[in-house]
Amino acid sequence: MTLVLxxxxxxxxxxxxxxxxxxVRLTAHSGQVTALLGPNGAGxxxxxxxxxxxxxxxxxxxxxxxDDVTKLSPAHRARRIAVVLTDRVDGGLLTGGEVAxxxxxxxxxxxxxxxxxxKHLIAESLDRLGxxxxxxxxxxxxxxxQRQRVLIARALVQQPALLVLDEPSAFLDVAARVELLxxxxxxxxxxxxxxxxxxxxxxxxxxxxxxxxxxxGDGTVVDGSPAALIESGAITRAFDSRRVRFDxxxxxFRLGEG
Length: 258
Ligand SMILES: Nc1ncnc2c1ncn2[C@@H]1O[C@H](COP(=O)(O)OP(=O)(O)OP(=O)(O)O)[C@@H](O)[C@H]1O
Description:
Number of strands: 12
Order of helices and strands: EEEHEEHEHHHHEHEHEEHHEE
Structural class: alpha/beta
Shape: globular
Radius of gyration: 19 Å
Bound molecules: adenosine-5'-triphosphate
Helix content: 25-40%
């Protein structure tokens, strides 16, 4: 299962249209986490929403296992692609267990009852996210980080071929961020799915990820291993600012001489 972006241009329609990223040609492989990095405003969310079919691409095609995602019906897309966005969600009076169970909807329709296997899958997914205790807690009574775990559990319950997460670690503490990346890596490998996530945890990703897409901030996206992107200077070019310098030897950012 592979995600292929073929000459994809993303942005916002209008007169004139606002192009954010142009002619992107990239691949993300199944069984692997691909981390999308880039400075603020580089186009990460726009790209992820476009890949997930939540917003129209301005040009090109997105293929998932050979099928053009941009041409799938919303129902078909929901069976293949799970999306976890950063927006604060108001799950209201639903419990964590009920929200996780919603992940089965694309597969069964509203009236069907959950099978024993599906109930097992829901319990297992909450457990993987360390969210078993949240099964009976209402969403509005959870912290942002707890809600985030439940939403990721719901995405696993969906059993997608492609899992897209926009800044999944935004509300998590540092230990939970490291754990989440490791967990997503494990899930990608075990389930053989393609995981694509955006994050500002640049140093963590450079230390732990195998494959990175880098939205460089100039309308282009390059990809490669962390080592290759560091060596080519792409990370430095994307993130260096007047005050901050990337140290390629230690793989960390340092305050520079202004
Ligand atoms: N609805 C919209 N209409 C028009 N332009 C938009 C819209 N949403 C975002 N943009 C613009 O698209 C560009 C990319 O934004 P995007 O949110 O994709 O960046 P990002 O890399 O996810 O940023 P961040 O790291 O700050 O979340 C920005 O210049 C932004 O102003």
